[in-house]
Structure formats: structure tokens, C-alpha cells
Write a structure and sequence with these properties.
two-stranded antiparallel sheet, 2 domains, globular, 6 strands, single chain, 42% helix, 15% strand, alpha+beta
């Protein structure tokens, strides 16, 4: 009598494809976390660069099938058979948030908040390079909510006012007593 095989489709259905919480994300092995991040990268490339699913997946280092399976409603197949990405999504992202104590990882469930946070990071970098705080001022009364809906920090608490530092290309200062490197 032949051996009875376990149905593979049952195993695949039982495996969780969509990460819903930060705990789900961090409970996964590192390889699965990396695969999830690659799926997000492919979706971002489709959205920002207008790439097809196949090209975006190739650049992100993941198969188009994996992106299609894990992206949920972030991408959908059109009548012409091609995949199109939505303007925004609610996929979980683990990102770094600048705080007064340094940076820390948080989970976001909204592509708009992730974009806002990225714009803030860019504004902080410009401020540190040039001393121009005008781009940071746009974030004065905005807030970020994590995947659980908790307010993480208002932007005005994240970066305290800093004195303008002299900007010298090629030189790097670590403190008052340090000498310039470069």
C-alpha cells in the first residue's frame, strides 16, 4: 500500500503570509523578516518609480509571486493582466524613529505615516548639514501612531532646538574637545 502524503496546500494555507503586528514581525526568523522587507521595497519601487511588478521584484531581490501573495490589497491585478499598485497601503513596516535618546524601532501600519517619517528624517539631515530648520517646522504639530494606535512622539519632542554648527565639507566634529577629522 502506498504511503499517504500530506497535502502541501494545507501546509501553505496554515502559514501566515501577512504580518499584522510588530510581535508577528519579530517572531519570524531573520530570513522571513528580510523577505517581508523586500516585498515592501518592491511595492515602494512600483509606487515611486512606476516599475512593473516583475522589474520591481527583481530589483528588490524577491519573486513576483511572493510580492503578489504577500502584498494583499497593496497591489491588484487589472483587467489587462498586469499588476497595479495602490496609492497607499496598510502593510506593517518596522522603521526607525528619531527620539531625544537616539533612535528606536517602531511598527507602522500606514504608508502615509511611513512617508511622513521619511520626510522628517530628510528634514533633520538637511538641518544637521546646513542649520536650516524651515523644513522641520512643517512637522511642528504632527504625530506618529504605531501599529497599535498609540501616539509615539510628536515631532517637536523628537529634536530639541540645536545651535547652528559651522558646516565645513570634509570635516567631522564629535564634540567641543575633539579636533576635526578629515
Amino acid at each position: 500500500m502506498p504511503k499517504k502524503r500530506r497535502n502541501r496546500s494545507v501546509r501553505r494555507r496554515n502559514r501566515q503570509l501577512h504580518v499584522k503586528t510588530a510581535d508577528d514581525f519579530f517572531a519570524q526568523p531573520d530570513a522571513e523578516q528580510e523577505k517581508w522587507n523586500r516585498v515592501l521595497r518592491a511595492i515602494a519601487k512600483m509606487r515611486t518609480e512606476g516599475l512593473s511588478l516583475k522589474k520591481a521584484a527583481k530589483e528588490a531581490g524577491v519573486s513576483p509571486r511572493t510580492v503578489a501573495k504577500r502584498a494583499g490589497r497593496a497591489i491588484k491585478k487589472g483587467e489587462n493582466g498586469r499588476y497595479a499598485v495602490s496609492k497607499r497601503d496598510s502593510l506593517l513596516r518596522v522603521v526607525q524613529v528619531p527620539t531625544s535618546d537616539g533612535s528606536r524601532d517602531i511598527a507602522l501600519r500606514n504608508s502615509r505615516q511611513a512617508s511622513t517619517l521619511a520626510q522628517y528624517w530628510d528634514a533633520v539631515q538637511k538641518y544637521l548639514r546646513t542649520g536650516d530648520a524651515t523644513r522641520i517646522e512643517k512637522f511642528r504639530d504632527k504625530q506618529i501612531k504605531d501599529a497599535n494606535g498609540n501616539v509615539i512622539n510628536t515631532f517637536r519632542q523628537i529634536l530639541p532646538p540645536m545651535p547652528r554648527l559651522p558646516v565645513c565639507p570634509g570635516l567631522l566634529y564629535f564634540g567641543e574637545g575633539d579636533r576635526p577629522l578629515g
